[in-house]
Design goal:
Layout: H1 8-17, E1 23-28, E2 31-36, E3 39-45, E4 48-52, H2 58-63, E5 68-73, E6 76-83, H3 93-120
Antiparallel strand pairs: 1-2, 2-3, 3-4, 4-6, 5-6
Length: 141
Amino acid sequence: MAARPTPPFILHCLELLEPLGPVRERRMFGAHGLYVQDLFIAIVAGEQLYLKTDASTRPRFEAAGGTPFTFVQRTGTIETGYLTPPAEALDAPALMEPWARLALQAALSARAGAGAARSATPGPAAPRRTPTKPRRPTPRR
């Protein structure tokens, strides 16, 4: 099966984020996720770019008129922590860079917080498995 060509708007967004380092995209749930340094920093849905925010960066996006990425579930509309950058930031990598750096900061903060939360709250010990009988290797086809 041939790979689908990358849509032009996705290519444009990859170019806009390039000052942060190598950027990759991945299809997800009808949208695209954009990653820098293996950190998920952006969602592209339709022809709209949404950048990751957190409690410290979201006010800057909101002050610039950013709108959140939302999706509908059975329980209602869900608002995410991804907001649009100012429209003019889509014009050039130099204009996008400060907003992209805020998204990278939010992603790094989330990663650090997740690691701290994981190490601070140990879960219950995994039950020990007692082997019943040796498994046969699965034949390759």
